[in-house]
Design a protein that fits this description.
By secondary structure, this protein is an alpha+beta fold. The protein has two domains: 13-105; 112-222, Cytidine Deaminase, domain 2, CATH 3.40.140. It is 35% helix and 15% strand. The protein has seven helices and five strands; from the N terminus they run H-H-H-H-H-E-E-H-E-H-E-E. The chain has helices at 22-29, 36-44, 53-64, 74-77, 85-105, 159-168, 189-205, and strands at residues 129-135, 141-149, 173-179, 208-215, 220-222. It has a five-stranded mixed sheet, with helices on one face. A hairpin with a 4-residue loop joins strand 4 (208-215) and strand 5 (220-222).
Length: 229
């Protein structure tokens, strides 16, 4: 059997399309829209000779996957080609700081409005953003993610895209949140149809859609409070 391989080439950051550069994406869309690898790439800033920043970030991601403690161990990080003492210390400090704030700010979501502080940036967006917030068995927030940007419809909001990370989080349930830039938070027929579809998929795979919130500048609409769930 013959096996064909392709040699990976290092791509300088200045040769990547501006919209795909992690720092530019972070400035334009916010950190929630970046993948884990892209967030690590922002911390790194640059790669090394023969190995671009994304490949170094990917190596770090593989190293810490399933064991966030490895991100805090400088010796573990320095085993990765392209990570010296300074970068290892920088990454270790960033992960330790995020973990400390996570412990301090971990909150239970009791009422629909408790989720609003996690998505307050949606109130000023001029495009529709669809966000998921996963919670554990104690109703504490695990992670917030931007799933897509654009008008809500069944083509864009595919259950695969919504539930893939929810399953990875081992979440008990998930909140769906999107904004109406017009300020009118009443759900459209499309909003209701998409929600129903996601609820049915959630029931099949054993993950609860806890609520769907539509937010505007000064108000919100809760599907659960209005008996649409």
């Amino acid at each position: 059997m013959y096996r064909y391989t392709t040699k990976l080439k290092s791509v300088p950051i200045n040769r990547i399309r501006p919209g795909d550069r992690p720092r530019e994406k972070l400035k334009e869309m916010g950190p929630a829209f970046l993948s884990d690898k892209e967030l690590i790439a922002v911390l790194l800033g640059s790669g090394v000779r023969g190995k671009d920043v994304f490949r170094v970030a990917e190596d770090i991601e593989h190293k810490i996957r399933g064991d966030i403690g490895n991100a805090k161990k400088i010796r573990e990080l320095q085993q990765i080609h392209g990570i010296g003492p300074a970068k290892a210390a920088q990454i270790s400090a960033a992960f330790e700081l995020s973990q400390r704030y996570l412990v301090r700010e971990k909150k239970s979501i009791i009422r629909p409005e408790d989720i609003l502080p996690f998505v307050e940036e949606l109130c000023t967006k001029k495009q529709e953003y669809f966000i998921t917030v996963t919670v554990d068995g104690a109703s504490c927030v695990i992670k917030k993610r931007v799933v897509f940007i654009g008008t809500l419809n069944q083509t864009l909001v595919h259950p695969r895209e919504v539930f893939a990370d929810v399953i990875t989080d081992r979440a008990k349930g998930v909140f769906l949140i999107h904004n109406h830039p017009s300020g009118n938070c009443r759900p459209s027929a499309e909003d209701i149809d998409v929600t129903g579809r996601l609820v049915r998929v959630g029931e099949i795979i054993g993950i609860e859609i806890i609520d769907h919130l539509i937010v505007g500048k000064n108000e919100y609409f809760s599907f659960i409070e209005n008996k649409l769930l």
